[in-house]
Inverse folding.
C-alpha cells in the first residue's frame, strides 16, 4: 500500500476475510429508491424509500449473510403509503458491489441494487483534517469504509475518496478492512508530506488497543525506543533492533518518535510480506 510506507515494519497479519467488503453504505435500486444498508457481522439491515419528498413507499429489512446469499424479511413502514411485507433472498455479486433478488414474496418491486459510490469517481485522497507538531491527520468513518476496484486497483474508500491503495492485491485489501473495523480506526496521520516516511492510525483520537485474533505483532517498549544513526540512516530502534528507517531525515525520525511516545504505541503490525500492503501501530 503506497499510502502507508515504513521500511522497518517486520510483521504479518494472517486473517480470514469474506469475498466482499462491508455492505454498509448508500445503495440505489431499480425500483427508483435509495437504500441505507448497515452490516454488523453477518447481519444486514436497511431502510429504503422512494426518491420523493413524500415517498410513495418506504421499507425496512433484516437479514443474515450465508455464503454469497442474504436471506431475511422486509416490511413497509408508515412513512410511505404501501403496506406490504414478505421474505427476500439476495445474491451478492461483483465483489459485494451489487445485490440481486433470487427469491421474494409479498410483492416487493425491486430486483437489483448498486452501491451509490461509483468506482470511477473514487479518485481523490482525503485532505488533511488538521496539522500538529507530530503530524497531520485525515478523518474517516470506519462504519462506512468499503472496498472498490478502481482502474484495476483495489482500494479502501470512504465516500468519494480513497484512503489506501492495494494494487492488484484484493486479499490484502479485505484483510486491512477487517483490521480497521476491528479497532474502529478513524484517523490516518502522516509525518512528512507530500511523501511521508511514517504514518499511523488512531481510534477516536487515541491508540488502537487490544489484540485481534490471527494478527502477528512485535512488541517494543515506547519508553526505551530511540533515534540512532545506523550505517548513514536515521532509524528508530528498540535495543539492538531497528523498527523504522527514515534515511537522511533526522527531523522526521524524531517527530515519529514523539508520536510513538505520545500515543503509547507498543506493537508494530502489518499486512503483506515482504513489502507491507498495510501497516499499523497499536498498544
Amino acid at each position: 500500500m503506497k499510502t502507508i510506507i515504513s521500511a522497518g515494519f517486520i510483521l504479518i497479519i494472517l486473517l480470514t476475510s469474506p469475498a466482499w467488503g462491508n455492505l454498509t453504505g448508500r445503495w440505489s435500486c431499480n425500483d427508483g429508491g435509495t437504500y441505507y444498508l448497515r452490516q454488523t457481522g453477518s447481519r444486514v439491515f436497511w431502510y429504503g424509500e422512494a426518491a420523493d419528498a413524500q415517498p410513495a413507499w418506504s421499507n425496512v429489512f433484516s437479514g443474515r449473510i450465508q455464503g454469497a446469499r442474504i436471506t431475511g424479511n422486509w416490511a413497509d413502514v408508515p412513512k410511505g403509503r404501501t403496506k406490504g411485507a414478505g421474505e427476500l433472498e439476495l445474491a451478492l455479486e461483483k465483489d459485494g458491489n451489487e445485490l440481486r433478488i433470487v427469491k421474494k414474496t409479498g410483492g416487493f418491486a425491486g430486483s437489483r441494487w448498486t452501491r451509490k459510490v461509483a468506482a470511477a469517481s473514487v479518485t481523490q485522497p482525503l485532505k488533511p483534517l488538521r496539522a500538529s507538531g507530530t503530524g497531520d491527520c485525515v478523518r474517516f468513518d470506519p462504519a462506512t469504509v468499503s472496498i472498490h476496484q478502481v482502474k484495476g486497483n483495489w482500494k479502501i474508500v470512504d465516500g468519494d475518496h480513497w484512503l489506501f491503495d492495494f494494487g492488484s492485491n484484493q486479499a490484502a485489501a479485505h484483510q486491512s478492512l477487517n483490521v480497521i473495523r476491528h479497532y474502529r480506526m478513524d484517523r490516518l496521520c502522516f509525518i512528512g508530506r507530500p511523501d511521508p516516511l511514517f504514518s499511523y492510525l488512531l481510534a477516536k483520537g487515541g491508540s488502537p488497543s487490544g489484540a485481534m485474533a490471527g494478527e502477528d505483532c512485535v512488541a517494543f517498549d515506547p519508553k526505551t525506543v530511540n533515534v540512532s544513526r545506523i550505517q548513514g540512516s536515521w532509524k528508530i530502534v528498540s535495543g539492538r533492533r531497528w523498527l523504522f528507517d527514515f534515511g537522511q531525515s533526522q527531523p522526521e525520525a524524531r517527530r515519529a518518535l514523539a508520536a510513538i511516545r505520545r500515543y503509547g504505541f507498543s506493537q508494530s503490525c502489518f499486512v503483506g510480506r515482504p513489502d507491507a500492503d498495510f501497516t499499523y501501530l497499536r498498544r
